[in-house]
Design goal:
Length: 153
């Protein structure tokens, strides 16, 4: 369910998305308000779950994670026990940055960030040893053209 936001809330969220590390004074100045109302609105949006948490975006390549794979998974298993085991396997693997259950021919897609192809193979072997999958296709991203966490407010 969507939360009602006014124009000032949207401006504040835009500033936080652009740079979550900026000071309240800087945010207030940018949105044309004062510090206390901005802080109160941020607090309320946190309480409402609009703002889930603060984090910093790191440069994966500069940290040695040069390979990004999109992993397409088809499974013949759809019961609750398999799904629970699959979820547990994914939660325990920090190299899985995103996981989505899909409609259509592919059941799941994963975004996996690793150092290289050998590291991907290690991930793959560990995953298939934990959960039964029908088919796995790994697609190596040759170039990241666009990546953002910014929502179009």
């Amino acid at each position: 369910m969507a939360v009602r936001l006014d124009e000032l809330d949207r401006k504040i969220l835009g500033e936080l998305q652009a740079d979550g590390g900026q000071s309240l004074d800087d945010i207030a100045k940018s949105v044309g308000s004062s510090k206390t109302p901005v802080w109160n609105r941020i607090r309320k949006m946190r309480e409402a779950g609009v703002i889930r948490h603060q984090t910093y975006l790191l440069d994966a390549e500069k940290l040695g994670f040069e390979a990004c794979f999109f992993v397409l998974i088809r499974t013949s298993e759809h019961d609750a026990a398999w799904q629970k085991a699959f979820l547990r396997a994914l939660q325990g693997r920090p190299e899985v940055q995103e996981a989505h259950r899909l409609a259509g021919d592919i059941d799941y897609i994963l975004k996996v960030r690793v150092e290289n192809a050998r590291a991907y193979d290690t991930f793959y072997q560990a995953l298939i040893s934990e959960v039964k999958v029908h088919n796995v296709t790994a697609l190596l991203s040759m170039e990241e053209i666009k990546s953002t966490t910014v929502l179009p407010l």
